[in-house]
Amino acid sequence: MARPDELATIGELTAAIYVAGGYINPDNSYILRLRDAVARAREAELLVATHNGEPTGTVTYCLHGSPWAQLTAPGEAEFRMLAVVPAARGLGLGEALVRRCISRAREDGCRALRLSTEPVMHAAHRIYRRLGFTRTPERDWQPHPGVELLTYALPL
């Protein structure tokens, strides 16, 4: 879980990773949601991975009914905004964060864990498939015109 003193750093880290990766334009209003680690920590669970004592990865875990849940049905959980700084990629931090979300969903008694991802996030897709997630194309969606999101689910 994120500590209160990490929230500003985590918000900026998430936004910077999404911009640097070309996943979002810095002028897009969604950047404000990415930066809002305070709300994510308050209204969901903000998980953090560290390397050499510094926050280097994050993900937001939420249950159905959370203001951050977009895909869930009752009895399901979701995670979003998975981000790992480029210098720490390959260390297993992204996978560790996803595994923690799987554990949390099981602890919460959920029957499935869901996520949305951009088509170009190939490294993340490899993690999801390796951990047993499968594509759910019937749930693919567009939060805005021109923004296509793929969906995956893991039955628990």
UniProtKB/TrEMBL annotation:
Entry keywords, A to Z: Acyltransferase, Transferase
Keyword Acyltransferase: yes
Record carries keyword Cytoplasm: no
Name under which the protein is recorded: N-acetyltransferase
UniProt-listed InterPro entries: Acyl_CoA_acyltransferase, Bact_Acetyltransf, GNAT_dom
SUPFAM superfamilies the record matches: Acyl-CoA N-acyltransferases (Nat) (SSF55729)
Residue ranges constituting the N-acetyltransferase domain according to the UniProt record: 1-156
